[in-house]
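Subgroup meeting minutes
Present: P.N., E.W., G.H.
Scribe: E.W.

1. P.N. recapped why we're keeping a running log of single-chain structure predictions: easier to compare across weeks, and new members can see raw inputs and outputs side by side.
2. G.H. added today's entry (293 aa).
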Amino acid sequence: MHTVHFPNKILPYLLLAPQIILTLVFFFWPASQAIYQSMLREDPFGLKSTFVGFANFSAILSDQNYLQSFQVTIVFSVLTALVSMAVALLLATAADKVVRGQTFYRTLLIWPYAVAPAVAGMLWLFMFNPAMGTLAYLLRSTGFAWDPLLKGDQAMGLIVVAAAWKQISYNFLFFVAGLQAIPKSLIEAASIDGARGSRRFWTIIFPLLAPTTFFLLVVNTVYAFFDTFGIIHAVTGGGPAKATETLVYKVYNDGFVNLNLGSSAAQSVILMIIVIGLTAFQFRFVEKRVHYG
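Output recorded in log:
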């Protein structure tokens, strides 16, 4: 084993300094400000602040609208992660079997990741708009009463599809890399032993993809909690009747629309704690079932 030695003792700290500065400025400083502001009650114009301790947190946790947003977030996160990862795994296994034009097909499947969340939301909104959407017209022509602007379950389905479509390319990249890392000798040995089709996939390939699947599970959970704001804002705006108002969107509504800054800051702190807790839970319990053999 070779050990790297820096001739200059200051050089390692200089190399780490930009990342440390960015972390302090863009994470720890805003997080500390949010924690401090969550214990204040401010008027909408920011002219007066009153220290109220944990009153904002107690009011939030007893608010039925907040509890509804929590339920909406759980449903939305689970559905988005399952749909995006399942479709990405299906596409990755299909692309891995392609011999000619493999690079071309993979490039096409990666492109959607470059689309901004708000743009992705608008694309799906136009396609499924009840008044002028092409796919909405096809749904109505089959007799299905499609109207996500009035029906909460349909609105939830629309943002799940839009958010999952945006994330499929990211998951696809990692699943393809995971499939390429599986030794071909194991697949050939399984084929010789008589394992075919789905049996070979679930007994050989999928268990070997466990580290990749676990990583993507963590990433997709964080994505659904935080990075889907632009999609929800563009497609439904949290409606109808708050049916698609997730926790991160409620933070925006209460803070920037209703100017309830103390409550909004407290909600952001709770959201941060929830995501940290979910990630810790996944590493503590889910990772035990992951095989890195």
